[in-house]
User: What shape does this take?
Amino acid sequence: MAAFPAEQPSSLLIICRVPSKAADKEKRYRMKRFLKEFKEFALRGNVMDMAVGIIIGGAFSGIVTSLTDNFINPILNELTGNAVYTKTEVLGFVSAFLSSVVNFIIMAFILFCLVKAINKLMSFGKKKEEPAAPTTKLCPYCKSEIPIDATKCAHCTSILEEKHD
Assistant: This one.
């Protein structure tokens, strides 16, 4: 008995077909283009700003949680008479809060350094823009800013001399 029916030999050829070099080249081109688009998306300004905001917000929530757990709740417990704290416990509350503040500062500094490095890498290949030609000049009499092609000052009504080079 044959493994494949005699009337369908073409189906075996379709399954075992080897891709051509042109198809591989097209796939590589599409993958490179896809990765380039992803890089442009991921490193775009507003995406980076959103990521920084989420990370800073998460770090700041640690400060808020520490503030409520280590200051507000103990004060409320003391006022309502539910708990009595020793000096050691109070110092523990203060040190826990200061620890969360230091963690926030360290995280913010590291994030700042990362964003600065990414911005430097992004501007590495860009050409510097030339400054635009000036559109205004100063009046030699009243020192007001006037259009560059003005022949009379709008502020002091002095007639301006044309410079001929």
